[in-house]
Amino acid sequence: MSRSAGGTGGTDDAEGAQDPRGRHVAGSLAHRVPDLGALELLLAVARLGSLGGAARELGITQPAASSRVRSMERQLGVALVDRSPRGSRLTDAGALVTDWARRIVEAAEAFDAGAQALRDRRDSRLTVAASMTIAEYLLPGWLVALRSQLPDTAVSLLAGNSTAVAERLLAGEADLGFVEGVSVPAGLDSAVIAHDRLIVVAAPGHPWARRRRPLRAAELAATPLILREKGSGTRQVLDAALGGLARPLIELSSTTAVKAAAVGGAGPSVLSELAVGEELSTRRLVSVPVADVALARDLRAVWPTGHRPTGPARQLLSLTRA
Q: What is the DSSP secondary structure assignment for residue 216, as one 8-state letter?
C-alpha cells in the first residue's frame, strides 16, 4: 500500500490494496477485471486457435494483440495462452477465464442492446416548446429540414409564450424550447440561435402612418397598444426597452390575432419584423420609425440546466444554427 506525502493516510494503487499475503482486498473492479476488448480477444483466440487470426478478426495488429494478452496475464497473475509455431492454445487457467469472459461479454451485449433500445425510443419522438413568433415563423422551416434527416422521428410542437415554454421544459414536458424574452428563464441553459427586431406598425389609415417625424420612446410608452399577453417574449422586450407600458388597448394571446387587430385599424402595435413582412409588403400595415430606443432582441434555444440536448433535440438545435 502506498502512503500519502504526509504519511498520515494511504491510497490504493492502480491494482487495489493488498493484505500481508498479497491478496486483493479492495479497489475498483475496473482496475482488477480486464476490459471488454481484452476479453473479446481472448474469446477469439479460443475460437480460432490463433492469436494472429483473432487480431485480424478484431481489426488490430498481431503485436497489439500479443501486448493485450500479456497485459491481461499480468493483471490476472496467471498465464492464459501458450504460443507456438503451430498456433495459440489456451492454458487450463485460460480456458477457465474464457468461460467467465464469455458470460461477461454476453452480459455486455445484453446491456448494449438495452441501451440501444432506450436510444431508439428517445429518437422516435421529439417534443418542442416554442414561443409564438418562433413557432409560427422559424420552426416550420427547421422542422422540415429535420424531417429530411430523421424521417422516423415524430415531432410534437407546444406553442405558447416564453413563460409557458420554461414551465414545460422544467416539468419535463418538452425536450427543447425556444424563447424570445429579455433574459433566460431560471433553471434553463441557453444558446442564441437568431436575432430579431421589433417594429412599431399601424394600419395605413392610422395617424402614425402619416407622421413625418419618428416616434419618441416616451410617446410610444404612453400610448395604449395592441399587445400580446403578459409572459410573452415580445411584451417583455418592449416593456424593458421602454421602462414600462401604458395599459394595453387590446391584449391578445397570439401574434396572428395581434396582426389581425392592427390590420383592421384597431390601433398600433409592436411586433417582430419576422411576423409582418407580408403585411408590410402589401401595405396592409405601415412601419412607424422610433427615434430613441433600440428594440433588438436575441432568440434563444433553451433546455434544463445541466441537461444538454441529445438525439433529435440536438439535431434540431444544430439546424437552427445552419
A: P
All residues at 6 or more sequence positions from 188 whose CB lies less than 8 Å from its CB, including other chains: 166, 169, 170, 177, 302, 303, 304, 305
What are the phi and psi torsion angles at 185 (to 5°)? -60, 150
> 126-320: which CATH topology?
D-Maltodextrin-Binding Protein; domain 2 (3.40.190)
CB-neighbour burial class of residue 26 (10 A; exposed 0-12, middle 13-18, buried 19+): exposed
Q: Indicate the DSSP class of residue 166.
A: H
Radius of gyration for the alpha carbons in the chain, expressed in angstroms and rounded: 33
Name the stretches of the chain with pLDDT < 70: 1-27, 117, 120-123, 322
Find all residues with CB under 8 Å of 255, minimum gap 6, and list them.
132, 133, 136, 228, 234, 271, 272, 275
What pLDDT is recorded for position 39?
Answer: 92
CATH 1.10.10.10 fits 33-120, yes or no: yes
Model-level pTM?
0.62
Distances (CA, A) of 118 to 40, 115, 171: 24, 5, 21
E-only strand ranges, 147-249: 154-160, 176-179, 188-202, 226-228
Q: How far apart are CA 34 and CA 37, in angstroms?
A: 8
pLDDT score at 28: 77
What residue spans define the domains of the chain? 33-120, 126-320
pLDDT score for 10? 40
The per-residue pLDDT for 50 is: 87
